[in-house]
Specification:
By secondary structure, this protein is α+β, with helices and mostly antiparallel strands. It has one domain (23-153). The chain has 3 helices and 8 strands, in the order ααββββαββββ. Strands 1-2-3-4-8-7-6-5 form an 8-stranded antiparallel sheet, with no helix packed on it. The radius of gyration is 17 Å and the shape is globular.
Length: 158
């Protein structure tokens, strides 16, 4: 019995670690810190946009947008942009959870499980996958849409 429980714990812990993207480790870190420097520096130049206390660092040529709270300077989320995202080139590095931009919603859910629909705006659908620390925006082109962007985030404050 003890061996079975220990094996279960090891399997759950392994799946939890595998589900996380290395980028999810940056959520909650200070935006301009040593911990985030290498990643942010690798993205190149950025432009800034602000909405109240929220700041967006937009790396158009890298396909990344980092969102942080100006009050405490911590990263709230990281958006990875896919194809056809206005002004952004697609993010070309490894995506979380073994995803690829070519995947449809049904392929994503076969790989990582069903998402929870959060909200709909325009012709886009957003689904949360909390166990993977991601939300995915799908462009509604047909019955089985492809991913448009991935948001890496924490689901603690939801």
């Amino acid at each position: 019995m003890k061996k079975a429980v220990l094996l279960f714990i090891v399997i759950v812990a392994t799946n939890f670690v595998m589900a996380q993207s290395p980028l999810s480790n940056l959520i909650g870190k200070r935006v301009f810190s040593e911990e985030t420097y290498d990643f942010m520096h690798s993205l190149g130049k950025y432009e800034t946009e602000s909405f109240h206390d929220i700041r967006h660092l937009m790396y158009f040529s890298a396909g990344v947008e980092i969102v942080y709270d100006s009050k405490d300077g911590t990263i709230a989320s990281i958006f990875l942009m896919g194809h056809n995202q206005m002004w952004y080139k697609p993010y070309t590095n490894e995506l979380p959870a073994g995803l690829t931009w070519e995947m449809t919603k049904s392929e994503v859910e076969t790989l990582i499980g069903k998402g929870k629909e959060h909200h709909v705006y325009a012709n886009d659908y957003v689904y949360h996958y909390p166990e993977h620390f991601i939300s995915i925006q799908y462009a509604s082109e047909g019955e089985d849409p492809k991913m448009g962007s991935i948001q890496i985030r924490s689901f603690e404050k939801e």
